[in-house]
Specification:
Distance between the termini of chain A: 39 Å
Radius of gyration of chain A: 23 Å
Largest sheet of chain A: 5 strands, mixed
Oligomer: homodimer
DNA sequence: CAGCAATAGTTCATCCGTACAACAAATCCT
DNA sequence: AGGATTTGTTGTACGGATGAACTATTGCTG
């Protein structure tokens, strides 16, 4: 009755071995987290481990290709110069895959966060053939993997980002309305058998990409491509929900008497702040380009400006509910919203803070996403590398 | 950049000592979780620890008063009879305190989950004096503590449940609208200095009380007293949000053109499914008793029945949004909603499942709360004991 | 009822990983 | 040049888990 959460490791017996694993992780994290390179002595001081212990752990991480020693550089003070430790470039890599409405692609990131390779194929994938596309993406990924392994990099795994409801347990794609896909098991179609591939919703992986920048540990992420996607990040960790379906903000009720939505309900957020709704309200064709809308806005055209007001108010209302329910202090606007930020930010912030009960005590900050295009691909690769860091013992 | 969450312990060096702590926890949990008493050998089999290890750990837990050995009872098979291990009664206890709109009280629970002592004082605390009430509650708690210690029980700590916005970091009560309190630091007012007291919102602690029963590991909890409170439980753990203000479902927008709410916005859930709104819609005085409403409903009176329809639809809509954002498969209705369950459950379930995008793949279950009155007090005491179990090393 | 099989719990030598202290290495300062 | 200072390494000690052997206590069987 008094038992709380069983984290993956918490119901497993702790052996001597576990100490090593945990301290390996601790040391690796210390180096990866630090803005400047650390020495063994620095790590010892930060972690509280003995210098001797840190030394053996670091040696192991270096041998395993997770860390690299730089040339010792004399400090401005007395004493033996320290050996700077940094994440190892181009040894272990993670792969991010994505199918979106107008492109598919793959990116390879190494432990330094550098893009080792990236390939993107543009197209129009509205109502597309899942088997064909995923096979193509699989081939693309396979060529990247081969290239990596030729250069003696170890591929830690891959994450596939899809714009739909993905079951986090089984990896099944329940439905991706904008692709016209449903009931698909995407992993086998990629044909990357020996490599572990995990599937997730693209908004969630895009949110992970924000963690590379200067973002608070907890935030809500909202993005618009064709649909509206959302994600919850708590303490730098994705909050997926029971089955990976959290953050579905697109169909929050704005007005029970509002326009009919594709989902069957009335007055969903998507009918106010979705891309199509936005374009229509701005007096432009549904599939107009975002750049055209931005241009019209900069030109000061009234219909587009009014459309943004409506969208911002709706978005703010939905996000206000979101914050009331989840309580995080920051909202990050990504995708199309990041581009339209100048016309959204203040209005959204006002609407949110109007609705959030706790706002008087701690106002909610609204900001734009830092990660650029292909954020989901990047975030996916990052997630793979986060897993490596969470259990470095597997890789040394 | 690839760093994920730092749980309280995860950035601390693991020493030999940590092994002991973790395995103590593991063994304690195994015994506490098991429906039937376990032997040392059973625990060893379940945890994967060696029998020798389990023996020393169990000895320590028994010596520390967390576990008790029952009389060996011969099994129906060959072999030396096992010594059954069970949670120790009346050794270590947790205290739950609560101030609510019509009562204040304290309860003492031991590790078996039994109520050791409980005291409740009824009253009308709408717009009450915080200092006086908390002083009174403190005195009441002190007498319970004294009584416990006279009987050689160790008091592990206390949780104070308040119907308002509590800052989980500092323990400050920002505002409790129905008590008429704001900007209060409640802990010093209790005057229980040496004992650690943690403050939390009462809906959240009431949700914890549900964990004693047969409830799925993740659920949303909604309760109505005067205001509407909510909580998120994920994997048997309270999800508090960044500052402890999660689950504030009472002011989710139901209709932007709806009635004006005390919070300043329009069409909040509280205006449809709050106790006062409900009574008014039923044609009864705002402060009518719940039993009267239930009786009217059982008598089949039309106005009350219609009121329930409206409330259920609103509640379902808000909960639908909630589930879309947080993704859990179960909703538990507590407080007044538990009593009104027969007139709420089906309507709420239909409304939720109408709105939840993922419902076709996994319908949302709506159920009533199992914990009775004073659920927050009970949940608070349970939380204290959960902390004991999370770190038994501190108590042996 | 004696002897054997089976199961629970304990004892002890061993292994593994961290800690501490002493030491070697490499620099700055005077 | 020599002391001070800091880094990294080496070797011994210690704490905790382990597995095998051992004791304790039962049921089963002839």
């Amino acid at each position: 009755m008094f038992t709380d959460s069983h984290s993956p490791t918490s119901h497993v017996a702790a052996r001597q071995h576990s100490l090593r694993e945990r301290n390996l992780e601790l040391v690796a994290r210390a180096v990866f987290d630090s803005p400047a390179p650390l020495s063994r002595a620095d790590v010892a001081a930060m972690t509280g481990l003995a210098r001797a212990t840190v030394s053996t752990l670091v040696d192991r991480l270096v041998a395993g290709g997770l860390l690299t020693e730089l040339e010792p550089v004399a400090a401005a003070r007395a004493g033996r110069p320290a050996v700077p430790l940094v994440p190892a470039p181009r040894t272990v890599v993670g792969i991010g895959l994505e199918v979106n409405i107008d492109y598919l692609g793959a990116t390879v990131l190494d432990l330094t966060g550098a893009v080792v390779e990236e390939k993107v194929v543009r197209g129009q994938f509205h109502n597309s053939d899942a088997v064909a596309l995923l096979t193509e993406l699989g081939r693309l990924a396979a060529s990247l993997i081969e290239s990596c392994e030729r250069d003696e990099m170890r591929v830690a795994g891959a994450r596939l980002a899809l714009p739909g409801l993905v079951d986090s347990g089984t990896g099944l794609l329940r439905v991706a309305p904008n692709l016209g896909w449903q009931g698909i098991d995407p992993v086998p179609l990629l044909g990357l058998d020996p490599k572990p591939v995990v599937v997730a919703n693209n908004a969630k992986l895009a949110a992970v990409a924000e963690l590379a920048g200067d973002v608070p540990p907890s935030f809500l992420y909202v993005t618009a491509n064709v649909g509206i996607g959302g994600a919850v990040v708590v303490d730098r960790q994705l909050f997926l929900g029971e089955r990976g379906w959290s953050g579905e903000i697109g169909h929050v009720v704005i007005d029970p008497n509002g326009p009919l939505c594709g989902c069957g309900a009335r007055g969903c957020l998507e009918q106010y702040a979705g891309k199509a709704a936005l374009m229509r309200a701005a007096g432009m064709p549904d599939d107009a380009r975002l750049a055209d809308l931005a241009q019209a806005l900069m030109a000061g055209e009234t219909a587009p400006l009014a459309a943004m007001q409506v969208a911002a108010a709706a978005l703010g209302s939905a996000l206000g509910d979101f914050v009331n329910l989840v309580d995080v202090g920051t909202v990050v606007l990504g995708g199309a919203y990041a581009i339209l930020l100048p016309w959204l930010r203040d209005e959204v912030a006002i609407a949110i803070n109007d609705r959030v009960l706790a706002a008087p005590y701690a106002p909610i900050e609204v900001r734009g996403a830092a990660a650029g295009s292909y954020a989901a691909m990047t975030g996916g690769a990052m997630e793979v590398l986060r897993d490596v860091l969470a259990d470095p013992a597997r890789w040394v």
